[in-house]
Design brief:
five-stranded mixed sheet; 2 domains; Non-homologous end-joining DNA ligase; 7 helices; DNA ligase (ATP) activity; single chain; alpha+beta; DNA primase, PRIM domain; NHEJ_LigD; LigD_pol_dom; 301 residues; ligase
């Protein structure tokens, strides 16, 4: 990707990616001021992240959070595609909303130029009722939770005891999602039944660490195992989505070795995640889908 400045540093910059051109206005506007990331920097970083982020967003309805003046100012959620919508942007109708479908570098860069700093995607794919993954959202009640990776490890140990392979990914905020690719077959309701079993078992075995209490006011300092969030129509941040937090953190798949080393969600951010991916690749893409049918058949209904 190349950029050509016109007139001055504060003037719009024409960004080229092959035959695609995008006019980036206010290129010097600070977006993550603590990290020295301005708007043009962000668009360039998205171009580098695109091969890794897009596979987790394509084919799903997109909800974004836009910060027109950077992370420390007003923000708003956006489900409907911004108007005017360029011809290169694919959209899909669902529930009376015309969603962006983030399936191209061009669409990603355009959204970035509109200050979309977070990319949350639906658990269900467009036109496909049966999920291809199971997820468990590990949501700390504390902003800084020193037991987070201990909690992640306990979930991983339980899944491993069931003969299942999954990987954690940081949310980019305070939590972690456990992601397990599955063979299509089970419905979202059946996956919820499995998630309920996993969560209630862990909460019963570790009552001073975990809770399945929905109401935040009733959780105290316990870590919430949210098995309900992975469901048709509900969203979670896509892998490799940036997050609008002071450290420019990125939702990043991590290894179980890194869990044991007690890494922090803030360790992975826009200024280092691309180099990490070039060196290590995406561990989540290497996981093969597995069948949950044998286990689901043994769970009480």
């Amino acid at each position: 990707m190349t950029a050509r400045a016109k007139m001055s540093a504060a003037s719009p910059v024409l960004v080229r990616l092959g035959d695609f051109e995008l006019n980036v206005t206010h290129p010097d506007k600070p977006i993550w001021p603590e990290m020295g990331i301005a708007k043009l920097d962000y668009v360039r970083l998205l171009a580098e992240l695109a091969p890794y982020l897009l596979p987790y967003a394509a084919g799903r309805c997109l909800t974004t959070i836009r910060f027109p003046e950077g992370i420390h100012s007003t923000s708003f959620y956006q489900k409907n595609a911004p108007e005017p919508t360029p011809d290169f942007v694919r959209t899909a109708l669902a529930g009376g909303i015309r969603y962006v479908v983030l399936d191209s570098v061009q669409s990603l860069l355009w959204m970035g130029s509109l200050y979309a700093l977070e990319f949350h995607v639906a658990s269900d794919e467009i036109g496909q009722p049966l999920p291809n993954a199971w997820m468990l959202d590990i949501d700390p009640s504390l902003d800084v939770e020193p037991r987070l990776m201990e909690a992640v490890s306990l979930v991983g140990e339980l899944l491993d005891s069931l003969g299942l392979a999954a990987l954690p990914k940081t949310s980019g905020a305070t939590g972690v999602q456990i992601v397990m690719p599955i063979e299509r077959g089970p419905s979202f309701d059946e996956l919820r039944r499995f998630g309920k079993f996993v969560s209630e078992y862990l909460a019963a075995r570790n009552p001073k660490l975990f809770t399945v209490e929905r109401l935040k006011k009733d959780r105290g300092d316990l870590i919430y195992l949210d098995y309900l969030q992975h469901y048709a129509g509900k969203t979670l941040p896509a892998a490799y989505s940036p997050r609008a937090r002071p450290g420019a953190s990125v939702s990043t798949p991590i290894s179980w070795d890194e869990v044991r080393r007690d890494v922090k969600p803030t360790d992975f951010h826009l200024l280092n995640v691309v180099e990490r991916l070039r060196e290590k690749g995406d561990p989540l893409r290497a996981l093969k889908p597995q069948s949950l049918a044998p286990i689901l058949g043994q769970l009480p209904r």
